[in-house]
Structures are given as structure tokens and as C-alpha cells.
Amino acid sequence: MRDRDAELRSAVTSLDKLCREFAAGGTEIGELLTFSGRPGIGKTSLLHEVRRIAKLRDGATVLFARGGEQQIKEPYHVLRQLLQPALTSLQPDEFRQVMGTWEEVVGPAMGLKQPKAGARRLDPQGVRDGLDYVLTQLAPRRAPMVMIVDDLHWADLESLSWLTQFAVRARELPVLLVLAFREDESDWQTDARQHHGAVLKLATRKHELNRLSLVSITDIIRAELGDKAEDAFCYEFWSVVNGNPYEAVALLEQVREQELDPLEENSRQLRELAVDANGMTLKSWLDRLGASTLRFAWACAMLGTDIRIDLATRISTQSAEGARESIKQLRKQRVLTQTPNGNLEFVHPLIASSIYNTMPEATRTGMHGVAAAEIENAGLGLLAASRHLVETFSGEGDDRTVRKLRKAAAEHLLIGAPEAAQRCLHRALNEPPADDIRAEVLYELGCSALLTDPSATVNQLQLALDPDEGPLRPELRVDATFRLSEVLAHSGEIRKAALVCQEEAAVTGDRDGKLRLQAASFMWHAFRRSEEDGPGRSRRLGELCDGLTGREAADRAVLAMRAWDLTLRGAPSADALAYADDVLEAGRLPKGLGWTDSTWGFELPSMLGLTYTYNDRIAQAERLFADAIIQFEVAGWSGAHRGFAYFLMGLARFRRGLLAEAEDFLRRALRLSERIGSKLPLAWDAVGVLVDTMLARGRVDEAWELATGFGFQPPYHDTAMVLPDAPSLYGKLLVAKRRYAGAAAALTEAGAQLEARGWHNTVWAPWAGHLAIAIAQDEPERAREYAQKAVRDARTFGTASAIGTALRLQAQIEDGQQAVELLEQAVMHLGQSPAGYEHAVALVELGAALRRVGRLEDAQEYLYQGIELAQHCSAEGLVEQARRELANYGLRPNRLGDFRETLSQSEWDVAKLAVRGVPPQRIAEELGVQLSLVNRRLAAVYRKAGSGPDGLASALGLPGQQRQATRPGRETEDGDE
User: Fold this and answer.
1) For residues 560 and 583, is the Cβ–Cβ distance under 8 A?
2) Do 12 and 132 fall within a single domain?
3) pTM of the full predicted structure?
4) How far is CA 482 from CA 445, 450, 466, 505, 544, in A?
5) Both 144 and 259 in a single domain?
6) Residue 172 sits in the same domain as residue 225
7) FRET pair for 355, CA 20 to 30 Å: which of 116, 216, 689, 760?
8) Helical axes 931-945 vs 905-915, angle rounded to 10°
9) Interval 578-594: pLDDT, tens
10) Neighbours of 36 (CB within 10 A)
11) Tally of domains within the chain
């Protein structure tokens, strides 16, 4: 710890601050402290000292982990070291609380439990999100918490990506995160270099360790060799090792072994000795340790950190006695040391690297094979053995090795480690597998990257489907084709996705497989931005649907597509809903069509939910979307799947008029999309509805800035259809900005494209109504034609929200009594729909229209109703519009509330009896409830009325106890109002 006073003070300061502020009740007090420097500069020693000091703090929880050069490709190796001790120490009840709904995701990844039989593969982002939740729960329970990670540059990518992400959140928790790593980016694995800069940027305290001073090196030399060491010798020694502590210790060993006197005349030999000390070639290690001990050291180097003696003994093929002698020799030579749990570890990671690198290639490869077998025999499983298995000899065509690698790959996918799975499958292909299963291995390799690497998935699945690569079982050909189409579609290649399924369906003999591919082809065509023969596709889909006789998952999938097709076409809503209802079982998705079902993907239930959303069955849609969010979270799918579920829920909330909630869901969807990639179809969807939501909330300029900043304008996404229709949304935005010429051009083009496809849904694509507004001033007759067309299409579709909204838009281009009549019809229809915001707009616009024809009393009532509903919808702009309308004509901008409307029916029942003078005990007996409940209800009545028992009758608007109180708008038992 020489020359490390400043770094230690910084660490102690951070520890003191953490403990002090936590004792004072602080929670968001975390820090990130980093130590970096060259190899051997003393980072590990410094961290050990920080760890020791932290353990002396009362109540502190200290977690420690170390990256390992040989374990760099072992998934979650660092995180398991770091978190397992803390999680396994929890009592069962506390463990469940800490894990929450993430137990089936975090548990397998952290090695705390085996994945359930039939479990689905985990999304790595889902595992990271689950770990975020777990640490958020764990940290306050074990605070103050100190998390120390050494050799971060050798952390496995799964652990490193989470640690980098968590470093942002650590400041929100009572956690001190201490990381040590090599400064030079060349020491980081290629995929991890992006994390290097991120960690440095996030650090609140960062220290680059400098070389030791000449004074410190001189003290070290004289402590080892005596005061006779001359200054010139010490200076040359310091210059040769460049102040590096590790190199200084290694060179001192050489000086002692050579019995070199520390005199100036011998200083010239130091550079030659330093080469031997640092190089540590095979010959030098053999000379130092002997063949048997070196072989044991090789076995230890292969195992990495926390080395089990029994495994190292078997891998090195030594006897127990021979192993004990090797350990004794290696400890004497300061190569190995023993840990508190009885295992071994290298005194310094540079020694481990040096020993591993001296292994002849054939020896290393052979010993990896022995290690894989011994680890599996020890019951540690294929996950632990697989990193050795991938390093074994290939080219032998060993079927047993291929089977093990495929099984290991499957297990890696179950813990959210697709990169590790791909390494196993690539190695299996190099074995190589037998010709009759090669295509299957390619198929598995393609599927392993489904959630993380679309381009790799496309390449491998195309190879799996290539006849030159060998036969692929029919059921796997169907699934491979579907998976390929799925990835192509999610990447924006929707036409290609549809054609892939269409072509394979033509040569597929199995009825279920053929139907699955036909359905997928129809589905992808429906999601295309443009289509050559939309009406023809719809007709063929109808014919396919009419020919179905069963209710298997494939049949129901076709029904769901038909329901969505009819919705887009603006066909009678009842027909679309009839198909949709046939898909469900007791209001829920049937087996085989679930959100996380691997056969159909999430697109099918999404279509079903969208059908309900646009057919005024929003509550049903929200139940489906809520299930999606939960199921994706439980499955650990936190990427595009959960992002799309948030988008769908945001769309449903928007349609219902719950604008603040809609905006929250949509922004979450957009954040997830941006985390995955740039301008994916999901991002277009989220931005489109978010712009619409902000328009509804009256934030027109903010909506415009979001749209222009994102590029939400023609030509939109190259191939994918945006949900809902992007050109219609863009035209609506231009109308809101009063850019009528641009709006007219955009909406005219949108209408032409939609008409060609045969899509006439005025809620999905309200182009005609907004086009009428855009051209009303210049072309009033043409505007009326478009407005009337929108109303006709809406009446054909038949939902209350479609008709009401179309009538409301038509009223905007009319004047006087005609506008009033249209708005009265709009209010009537929208009042029967779940479209709360549209209803509020219609109420306010009706109030304004009534004011313009002189009906001020009626205008006032509708404006008040519009304000109340707009406030419920969080439509602040509409509230202000209605208040201005009232204020400009001398009307009160706010209606005094009637507390009676806030009383529940049960409170009214109690209040009516109390006004008659019935005592509480009698009220309880008459209503058949407990006295305590009566007293609580009476207290609520008195609080809302602002009166006690004596003034209650008056507060209710009644002259005395002779009459019973009635709720406004309710009839008494004898029929009088």
C-alpha cells in the first residue's frame, strides 16, 4: 500500500459518507469509485484493503467479485460471485420479497435454482431488468452496501453490461460501487470496450494508480536485501521495473535466486534478470517448479478463480499426495494462496496468465477436454463445463460432443446467455455434426440469436433451409421459415417476410404447417406499408377463414387475422368482433396463442387486441395488453416484446381518453425501442401515438418538435405500416399547426393509398375528416364531400366512437344550427362509447356552437360537462379552451361542485335514514350491516356535506325530516323526482 494514501483517503471518505448519510436516513446516496492502471500496479492490493476497511464498518454489507481471464466467457460469472452470498443468506420470506415476480428470471441466471421444465429462453435485457429490481429491493435491506469488483476488464459480458447499467442507478440507492480495471482499452475484450468509457464517465471519484516512487522501491529493496543496497542499484532497479509493484516483487525474487549483491556494479544485470522475471517462459517455469507441479499449476490456471483442489487434482491427473506436494511447492513459490473457503487462487492474476500461456497448444486443448469431463462428473453441470468443451479438439465428428454442446446451448438460453449458446453451437458445427443433423444445428444457432442479433438469425436460418446443408425435418422447416419471417418483419423487411412464408407454404404438405405459413404470410402482408393487391388478399383470407372447420391454434390464428382485416377495411364492427370473440376462451387467449407462445409470436394476440381497441371494446383490449406486460416481465422479455406491449397499452389508454397514462406508457415504449436500435417500427408506432396524445393534451408545439426531431414525416418507415396510419396522423398534426396546404397534400395522398388497399376505417385512419377541415376554406364543396364520406364509412363500420368522431369533424366545416345538430348527434354517439377524450371535445365544441346561436344556458351546461370530462382525461388544452369560451361571455369558468354527486349509493342509504332521525344502531339493523360500518359511512357523509347531523337535511337540500333525501337524477320509491 505504499504511495496509495490519496486513493485510500478517497475510499475511506466515500465509505464514511455512505455510512453517515444512511444512518441519517438517506437512501439516494450511492457513488461509483474507480481505480485503474497498468497491469501489476497494485489495484488488487488496494481493493483488498478497501474491502478490509469496509468490513469494519458497523452494519455494512460487503460484496466482492473478481473477473477472470479464463472465465471471461462464462455467463454471469462475476455477478454470481457478487450476489450469490447475499441472496442465499436471505430468509425464505425475505427472499420472495426481494425477488418479487423476477424469481424465475434472476434465479436461474444467478445459479440459485434450475429453470423450470419447459421454461422459455430468457432475454438478456430481461435478466438485467430483473437484477435491477432485485438490487433495488436488496440494497435497502442490507444497507449500507459496498459492492467491489476487481479485474473488471476480465468480467464476462453478461455481468459487465449489467454493472455498467447499474452504475447509473447505484446513486439512487445506499450503495458504494467500487470497480478496478486496466486503463488501456486494449486489455478489454472487443465487445466490452464500449463499457470502458461509460464506467469512467459515470464515476463520481476516479483514480488512475501511478507507479511507486523511488523512495518506496528503495524501502522495499532494503527491507528484503538489507541496508547494504546501494542507492545506484536501487535507482537502476526502480528504472527497470518502472515503479511497478508486481514487477518489483518478481525482480526481487530473481535477485535473491541469483544471490546478486545489491551493489552499483551489479545493477547492469538487472535488465537481463527482469526479462526472465517478466517473460516466465515454459522453460523458466519448468526450471522453477518441475514438470509435475507445473502441470498442477496449468490445471489451476484453466479453472481460473476460486479453484477447487479436487478438480485441479483430477485435471492434472495427479494423486492426492502428489497434489498436496504441488500445492505446497506453489505456495512456497508465491504462485498460489489458499482462500478462507479452502479453495485456491493465484497470488496475482498476471501469474495465472503467465502459466496458462506457457501451455503447449496440444496440451492445453487436451486438458480442456479433461476439465470438461471432470466438471460434469463433479455434478457442476454442462453450463460450467461448456467453456472448456468449446476449447477441445474439433474435426473428429464425435456425436457425443455435439449432443453435449447442443444441450449446453439450450441451457445457456434458459439463463439469458445467447452469446454463450452461440459459441457452443458454432463449436458443434466445427465438430462437425452428422450430415442428417447439420441443418438442425444451424436452425438452433439461428434461433439462439432471435432476441439479440437479427442479422445472425437471418443468415443461420437461411442456411438451415438451404437443401445443400442437409435435410431439415418438416416441422422444423415450418418453424425455421416462420422464425425467419418473424426476424425479417421485425427488421422492416415485411414484404420479404410475407413472400418467404408464401413460398414455403406452397411446398408444405402438412395441413397445420401449411396453415401456419399461410396465416403468417397474410399477417405480414397486412403489416406492410403498401401492398399490390390488398382487396385480393382480403378476399383470399376470407375464403381461407370460411374453409376452417376446427378450433385449433392455427384456425384461431386465421380468425384473429380476419377480425383485424375486417377492422382495417371498415366492415361492420359486429362481424369483426364475432371473429375476434371466437378466438378467445372465456375472454382469455387460448393455449397456443399466448403472448409468449413460441409458435405464433406476439403479433397474433396483438392483432386481436388492436381489433378490440378499434371496435370500442377497449376494456377487453386492456385486459389482453395487461396480460402481455405481465407475461413478458415474468418471461424476462424486456426488449421489443415488452416495448410493444407498453405501446399497445398506451394506444388503448389514448383511445379511452386517459391521456396522462397513455403518455407514460408510450414514452416507456419509446425508451425501450431506442435502447434496442434506431428508428425501429416500434419507435414509429410510439412516436405517432405520442404525437396524437400531446395534441389531445393541447401541447401542439411539443408534438411538432417531437415529430420533426424524430423525422415523423414522409416517407415514414421504408416498409412497415405504422400503427395507426402515419400519414393520417401527420396530416392531423399539420392541421393542428394550421399548415393547411401541407395537410391537404399529405391527407390526399394518404387517402389514395388507403382507398387502393380497401381500408376505410375512420378511426384507424381519419384522413377524410381532417382533409375536409384542411380544404374547407378554399374548397367548401369538396370539403363537404370528404366529411360526408367519413360519416358514411363510419356508419358502415358502426361503432359509436367512429360515428361520433366523424360527425364532430363534419361539424367543424359547418355553421350555425347545422353545426349544432351534427354536434348533438356526435355527443349522443360518443356518450355511448369509451372514447372519453373525443366525447369531451364534442361537448366543448357543442357548447361553443350553442353559444354562437345564442343558446347561452345550454352552452354553459355543455361547456361545464366538457371541462369536467377533459380534466378527467388530462386534456389541459381543452380545459383552457372551454374556460376561455365561458369567460369571454361573462360565464363562470368553473362550476361550483355539488357534493351530493360525490356520495356513493351506500352513503346515500345511510344519509336518508339519518335525516329521518333513525339512530345509527337502527340504521345498521335496517341495512343489515355492522354498526362500525354505519358510523364510517355517516362520517363520510358529514365530511362531504360540511355539516353535522343537525344541518344534514338542509345540506342535502331538504326542508326537514319529513321528506327522504334523494340523489339528483334518481326517483323515489313512489315515483316522484
Assistant:
1) yes
2) yes
3) 0.77
4) 15, 12, 15, 10, 19
5) no
6) no
7) 216
8) 90
9) 999 999 998 889 988 99
10) 22
11) 5
